[in-house]
């Protein structure tokens, strides 16, 4: 390549200088906007730090001084908190009996160090119920950055790169503007100038697109700030975006980095951190733990992302897909339940520049042909995957709600296994890798790395669980909300104990006598006009109506939801159930979210707990305890997740002295098993075998125990009546062997049956 002419160089430098000016302009506006946010943060941080110090016992100062502080005299004199010591003057402290100059100095130095550390780590919580002026000022400052949209971070990075490189290259290339100066300069200097000119030309290759990116971002930042009322409204709509930005500008790390990295071994975590993550095709900012999750999927190639519900597993998957496509991958595939297919298409198109194809419905063949020809991300249901032949060019297979394929003999599991064998990378996503048995978890791991999870030596339950977690560390990453999301409002669980009414009790005894497990579960709603549970549900909904809050009502049974809908005077949306078309399902959720003020959404818990974002609600009512604790936790997590701005209250309706109590105990045992193997927490003091039961066996056991319980109650309450001619025969009595046998057969067949059939 020949040396450029002086005229060409002058033109090149003019263009570079103009683009450099655009870059510096964006940097200046962005710095100004972030400075305003940090200034607005200070009073809130100081207020929160003061509250935290006021709750810290004075004994905590001993930790900071390495145990060298004798704080007994301080406590005896009424200095009970760190804040008390911090706000005291040296004179006041030194006058105290038993407090000399050294103790006073150590106490106040320790309090000051704790105050600084607390202030730095504070990320103020935005409470929509307490709209003070200081928080309003912060939201107005944040609004400019949030409203600038998802392209702002990319524009800022581009501006920084241009400012740094043009700042060095332009002075070096100026030598070439004059033929005389070029001739008089040495060959080495002339060579550097020519190299600089070539690099400037490379940076200007996409000049038009880069200028558009920079000028649009700068224009967005120059918008006048909104009024405080508008800022609060926008915060409620886009709370997750505000909190993401707030955490970033507060330089707030997770409470525990090890927890944010899923307690991976340090050597493995270091490998993941070193993994690059290209954001060229991504249109959303990631939190630190989300970026780590995307890197984990890219670095280790075939993994399970098991984050607790509400932490953005979909965003992490899209980040991994965007990286791969930016680096040359042409085709990727997402497999998901039909109920969340529409949501996946929306998320891919809004969170990235990738093209998404819907391989479902009447136009699936046309969509498949377009996907194969043009590339992008295809989205297909589990049923649709069975009819889809694997293609070798798929760079990543993403399987959402991967616990659907825990049974290796199921047809959908076999279809997923076939595709796992073809795809270069595989990402399973599930917040519930096991629901009843450890073997369910092993089955998922075997899809990715056959035999890995079976390499566990025999031993006691605690050591087996630890060994299992070590074995699956290279394929399993899980983080919990309490460890990585600091801004979530409180989650309050309340069990609403309601005694059976007369009609409820009759319906329950009949259900127990017939051995129908499902009828027992919903007997409390058999006579809606006199149902005690339904009356309490109405009261809870009326309370929410008075406060203008939205409510989600979950039940396993469609007929229970129908009874609830008929009993309420509130605006009711739904019900959502398994057979509802995905498009219609999303319409129902959108209408509920858009409703002004109070509204109620009815949903079957087994379908409403999957793939929904329901942050618009802040009250959850569960009509009956569930057989699987994951059903309840998933459903609640659809409401209590990133983006929620109000305290969430969960009301579970339970009847004392009934199978409800037995289900609650069994749920606790199943949760303990999950904690030991999949949640990464302190081991539960229980043997996995004790709760390793099928739903069918559980149903049989509960029916049997309830028959025995009711028979004993009858024996105590009506000893004389059991001899009357009208008493049931031995073959019909609730506690008889033949009835127990019938119970087993009935419950075994009815327990797994889909509720929509009832």
Structure description:
This is Helicase conserved C-terminal domain-containing protein. Residues 725-752 have a biased composition (Low complexity). Residues 706-758 are annotated as: Disordered. The chain is 56% helix and 9% strand. The chain is of the alpha/beta class. The protein folds into 4 domains: 6-39 and 134-236, no CATH class; 45-128, DNA polymerase, domain 1; 253-483, Tandem AAA-ATPase domain (Rossmann fold); 490-657 and 694-721, 3-Layer(aba) Sandwich (Rossmann fold). The strands form 2 sheets. It has a 7-stranded parallel beta sheet, sandwiched between helices. A 6-stranded parallel beta sheet has the order 8-13-12-9-11-10, sandwiched between helices. α1 packs across α6 (101-121), α1 runs parallel beside α11 and α8 (152-173) packs across α11 (207-221). The longest helix is centred in the first third of the chain and has 50 residues, at 6-55. The radius of gyration is 31 Å and the shape is globular. It starts with 5 loop residues before the first helix and ends in an 8-residue tail after the last helix. Mean pLDDT is 80; it is low at 456-460, 680-694 and 719-758.
């Amino acid at each position: 390549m020949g040396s450029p002419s002086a005229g060409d160089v002058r033109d090149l430098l003019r263009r570079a200088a103009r683009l450099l000016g655009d870059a510096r302009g964006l940097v200046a506006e962005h710095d100004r906007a972030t400075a305003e946010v940090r200034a607005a943060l200070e009073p809130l941080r100081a207020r929160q730090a003061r509250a935290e110090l006021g709750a810290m016992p004075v004994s905590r100062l001993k930790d900071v001084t390495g145990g060298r502080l004798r704080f007994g005299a301080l406590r005896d004199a009424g200095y009970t908190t760190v804040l008390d010591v911090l706000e005291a003057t040296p004179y006041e402290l030194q006058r105290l009996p038993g407090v000399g100059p050294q103790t006073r100095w150590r106490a106040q130095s320790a309090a000051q160090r704790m105050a600084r550390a607390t202030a730095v780590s504070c990320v103020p919580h935005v409470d929509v119920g307490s709209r003070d002026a200081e928080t309003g000022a912060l939201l107005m400052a944040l609004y400019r950055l949030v409203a600038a949209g998802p392209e702002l971070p990319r524009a800022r990075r581009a501006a920084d790169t241009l400012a740094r490189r043009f700042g060095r290259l332009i002075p070096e290339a100026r030598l070439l503007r004059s033929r005389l100066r070029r001739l008089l300069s040495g060959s080495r200097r002339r060579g550097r100038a020519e190299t600089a000119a070539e690099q400037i030309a490379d940076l200007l290759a996409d000049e038009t697109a880069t200028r558009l990116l920079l000028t649009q971002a700068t224009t967005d930042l120059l918008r006048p700030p909104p009024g405080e009322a508008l800022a609060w409204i926008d915060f409620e709509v886009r709370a997750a975006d505000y909190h993401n930005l707030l955490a970033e500008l507060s330089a707030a790390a997770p409470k525990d980095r090890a927890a944010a990295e899923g307690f991976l071994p340090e050597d493995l975590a270091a490998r993941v951190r070193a993994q690059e993550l290209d954001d060229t095709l991504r249109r959303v900012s990631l939190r630190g733990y989300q970026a780590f999750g995307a890197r984990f999927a890219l670095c280790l190639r075939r993994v399970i992302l098991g984050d607790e519900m509400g932490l953005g597993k979909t965003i992490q998957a899209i980040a991994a897909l965007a990286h791969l496509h930016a680096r040359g991958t042409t085709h990727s595939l997402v497999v998901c339940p039909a109920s969340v297919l529409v949501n996946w298409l929306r998320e891919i198109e809004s969170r990235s520049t990738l093209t998404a194809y819907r391989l479902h419905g009447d136009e699936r063949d046309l969509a498949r042909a377009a996907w194969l020809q043009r590339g992008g991300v295809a989205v297909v249901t589990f049923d649709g995957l069975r009819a889809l032949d694997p293609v070798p060019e798929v760079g990543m297979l993403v399987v959402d709600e991967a616990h659907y394929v825990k049974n290796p003999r199921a047809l959908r599991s076999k279809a997923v296994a076939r595709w796992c064998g073809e795809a270069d990378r595989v990402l399973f996503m599930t917040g519930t890798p096991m629901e009843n048995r450890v073997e369910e978890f092993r089955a998922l791991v075997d899809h990715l790395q056959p035999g890995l999870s079976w390499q566990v030596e025999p031993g006691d339950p605690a050591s087996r669980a630890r060994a299992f977690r070590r074995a699956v560390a290279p394929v399993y990453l899980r983080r919990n909300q309490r460890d990585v999301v600091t801004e979530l409002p409180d989650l309050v669980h309340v069990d609403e104990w309601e005694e059976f009414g007369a009609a409820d009790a009759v319906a329950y005894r009949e259900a127990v006598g017939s051995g129908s497990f499902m009828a027992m579960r919903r007997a409390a709603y058999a006579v809606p006009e006199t149902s005690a549970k339904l009356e309490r549900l109405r009261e809870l909904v009326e309370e929410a109506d008075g406060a203008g809050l939205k409510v989600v009502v979950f039940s396993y049974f469609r007929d229970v939801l129908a009874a609830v809908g008929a009993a309420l005077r509130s605006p009711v949306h739904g019900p959502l159930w398994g057979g509802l078309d995905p498009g219609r399902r999303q319409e129902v959720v959108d209408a509920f979210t858009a409703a002004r003020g109070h509204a109620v959404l009815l949903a079957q818990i087994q379908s409403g707990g999957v793939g929904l974002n329901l942050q618009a609600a802040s009250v959850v009512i569960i009509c009956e305890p569930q057989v699987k604790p994951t059903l309840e936790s998933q459903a609640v997590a659809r409401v209590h997740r990133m983006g929620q701005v109000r305290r969430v209250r969960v009301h579970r309706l339970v009847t004392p002295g009934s199978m409800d109590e037995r289900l609650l105990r069994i749920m606790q045992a199943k949760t303990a098993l999950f904690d030991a193997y999949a949640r990464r927490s302190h081991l539960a003091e229980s043997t996995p075998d004790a709760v390793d039961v099928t739903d069918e066996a559980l149903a049989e056991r509960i029916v049997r125990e309830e028959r025995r319980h009711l028979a004993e109650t009858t024996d105590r309450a009506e000893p004389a009546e059991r001899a009357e001619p009208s008493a049931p025969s031995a073959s019909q009595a609730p506690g008889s062997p033949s009835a127990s046998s019938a119970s087993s057969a009935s419950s075994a067949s009815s327990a797994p049956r889909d509720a929509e059939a009832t």
